[in-house]
Structures are given as structure tokens and as C-alpha cells.
Write a structure and sequence with these properties.
This is Prolyl 4-hydroxylase alpha subunit Fe(2+) 2OG dioxygenase domain-containing protein. The chain has 7 helices and 13 strands. Strands 1, 2, 3, 4, 5, 6, 7, 8, 9, 10, 11, 12 and 13 form a 13-stranded antiparallel β-sheet that branches. A hairpin with a 3-residue loop joins strand 2 and strand 3. Helix 2 packs across helix 6 and helix 3 packs across helix 5.
Length: about 270
């Protein structure tokens, strides 16, 4: 079995720690030429087609996330992707990212909830959001996201950039092209708003990424005890979507209120 040292190139922990410390709008690092070149091309050459991934994965067609397929079952990965997944979850690499972000006792998710192989086709999108913060059944607090891109020859004009936004989603602070063998790691929190620019690649192209998430059993210092699922926000130029999301949020609150009333004491007694 390959180790992380055999597929992931040497990383300067001290340099990346300094970069993460001063990064805005929240701690993050960008590592180009992340994997050994031969291995990165092995992953790319073994990557399933969109149709193949669709047969074994999950498709997204919502207002906030569409024309995207995700495969989280490691047993469905081709061999090179299994090696990549195992390297990102290895104790050696966990030690590295733990050192860079000063988060002890990091754990990889063996179930790849929300992670794994992602690919987005033309006209695909992923709106700005913060991620779910807790896995209830395993008592895991989400702390870091890692994304590795496999898009050889990707043009900036094709969109698909990873965007990092400020805390009120009024300003896009960074926009990173999803170029081949680029890795981005960032801290997840209540202000780590990020998204993917609309994908406008040609019909015969797709945007490929592999995602992994790291957790701790200990809560982050600023955790308020509330768990939540993914929280989406509209970009400043998405006025129609802002209204739609406001309606959806109001509808959700109304449903929660009705549910609470129905389960309140004496709720089912006649007046």
C-alpha cells in the first residue's frame, strides 16, 4: 500500500502555517503541484466519466447545487482514487494539516460524508455556503475541508473557481481556478463562506475535484452548542435568488413552528 509520503509531495509545514495564520477571510492554504506528477496523472486517467459516476453516485439538481455528481463510497473508486483517499486520511498527513492549522487530534471521515469524488458539468453550480458543522451520531465536529483538483488544461473562462467570501457575503475575497494538481485546505466555521462560480466549460468537459473533511471529537473553542446543516447565502448580484432563499427560509421556520406547536403540552386537546 502506498503511503502519503509516496504520493503527496514534501510540504513545508512552517511556511504554510505562517500563510494560514494571516490568510483572509478565514484560515486557508493553497498548494500547487500537491501530488507527485505521475500519481496525479494516474488519478486523472482513472477518473470515471460523468455518466459512470452518475450510475454509482448522487446527483444534485437543487436551486443551490446542480448538474453535479458525487461518489462517496470508497469501494466504488478506481484504485488510484482509493490510494489518494487513503493518503489524505493517513496519520502522516493528518499530522501535517494538524500542525499547519494548529488543530490537534484531527480525524479523517471514513464514510466521506459530503466528500469523495465530485464532478460538475456545464451549467453546474454550487452556491455560497457554510458547511454542516457536526455529525451527531459519531459526535464529530467539522474543522477542515481539503479539495484536490484534477482539471488539466482548465481555462479561467470556464468558471468553476473556488470562491472565498467574507462573513456577510458582501465581498468575494479570493477566487482560485480549479487547475490540475492544486490543493486547497481551509478551516470550516460559522464564517467560512465559500462556493463555486458557475461552470461554463464546453459540453465535453467536466470540473473534477476530490474532497475530504477533517473532524475532532473536541468542539472548537467558539462552538455555541448548536449543530446545523449546510447554510446557503445568495451572492450580492443574485437578487432573485435572495428572494427565493428568503421564502424558503420563512417556509422552513413556519414548519418548525407548527411542529413545535403540535408537540407542545395540551396541543391535541379540544378547546
Amino acid at each position: 500500500m502506498s503511503t502519503s509520503n509516496e504520493v503527496i509531495r514534501a510540504i513545508d509545514r512552517d511556511l504554510l502555517r505562517r500563510e494560514a495564520l494571516v490568510a483572509t477571510p478565514f484560515p486557508h492554504v493553497v498548494i500547487d503541484d500537491f501530488l507527485s506528477p505521475d500519481f496525479a496523472h494516474d488519478v486523472l486517467s482513472s477518473w470515471p466519466t460523468y455518466a459512470e459516476a452518475t450510475r454509482v453516485g448522487k446527483q444534485f439538481r437543487s436551486i443551490n447545487e446542480r448538474n453535479k455528481v458525487q461518489v462517496t463510497d470508497r469501494e466504488m473508486f478506481p484504485p488510484a482514487l482509493k490510494v489518494l483517499n487513503d493518503a489524505l486520511a493517513s496519520s502522516e498527513f493528518l499530522s501535517t494539516v494538524s500542525s499547519i492549522f494548529a488543530i490537534p487530534n484531527l480525524l479523517a471521515d471514513s464514510e466521506l460524508v459530503g466528500g469523495g469524488l465530485h464532478q460538475t458539468g456545464p451549467r453546474g453550480r454550487l452556491d455560497v455556503h457554510i458547511d454542516f458543522n457536526y455529525i451527531e451520531d459519531r459526535k464529530l465536529h467539522r474543522r477542515l475541508n481539503i479539495l484536490v483538483y484534477f482539471n488539466e488544461g482548465w481555462s479561467s473562462g470556464w468558471g468553476g473557481q473556488l470562491e472565498l467570501w467574507n462573513r456577510d457575503v458582501s465581498e468575494r475575497v479570493h477566487s482560485f481556478d480549479p487547475i490540475f494538481n492544486r490543493c486547497v485546505v481551509f478551516e470550516t466555521s460559522e464564517i467560512s463562506y465559500h462556493g463555486v462560480a458557475a461552470v461554463t466549460c464546453p459540453p465535453d468537459a467536466v470540473r473534477r475535484s476530490f474532497a475530504g473533511y477533517y473532524y475532532t471529537l473536541e468542539p472548537p473553542a467558539n462552538w455555541d452548542g448548536e449543530s446545523h446543516s449546510t447554510v446557503f447565502k445568495a451572492r450580492p448580484d443574485e437578487s432573485v435568488k435572495q428572494r427565493l432563499m428568503a421564502l424558503k427560509s420563512a417556509s422552513g421556520l413556519a414548519k418548525q413552528t407548527v411542529k413545535k406547536l403540535l408537540h407542545a403540552p395540551n396541543a391535541h386537546r379540544a378547546g
